[in-house]
Known about the structure:
By secondary structure, the protein is an alpha/beta fold. The chain has nine helices and eight strands. It is globular.
Amino acid sequence: MKPQLNHLVFKQGQSHPSHVSTERLVGKQKQACQDNFSIVMPVFNEARVIEKVITDFYSIVIKQMPGSRLIIMEDGSDDGTKDILKNLKRKIPFTLISTKYRKGYTRAFKDALKNAGADLIFFSDSDGQHNPYDVLHILGERRGFDIVSGYKSPRRDPFYRQFISKIYNTFFFLLFGLKMKDINSGFNLIRKTVVDQVLPEVQDMEYCVMSEFILKSFLSGYKIKEIPVDHFSRRHGSTNIFKPRRLPFIIAKTIKDLLHIKLKYRKHPER
């Protein structure tokens, strides 16, 4: 299959998803997603935000769509997150899969997708920086596409992260012809058929596992669309992956991994 990518950009005066009628968005998705839609979230040390995040995603999305599921993959948190989730589960129906020790984001990402058990899988980070209403909007854009990815607009990360992200995204375009605004977005709708084929191939990048998944989906010929979504500043804590002091090592390792993928797919273009 030939790699395909589509971008949806909102023009001046056009409604952003957060301003679209909730009733219209929910009504549009109820029948289409009944019994085949799951939201999956990996969680690690998010004690200060996780209750609100899960409550909002449940009330805005899951509760409005009979048959849908919310799956929380807790990854060995040690800040009280485990207890919060156990108590919250008594109030809100969601599936909780918890581990005693931390596996790391890459393993948690893979386990989350494997445990989704639905034809349509929505992967979301759990740090409270995304708007659950955007899940409904992304669902409405899925027709004809295998992955619909939300890029942060406007992005409210620190300047250094925005700068590195632009260079990072450009690197994917130069190496693979994949032009995206945020290839490592943690807010994506993915069809199970893509997960079944591509996830076993995700084994080359130690960091930025979502980037590898999106890249290999693209190289496998799946259709990808990007649309803008709300992004909120992180109010509590900091990223658990990209600590500033580790960035030089992570960048060097990621470049090495991407060059390895480039060489692998040059040798085996049919993959």
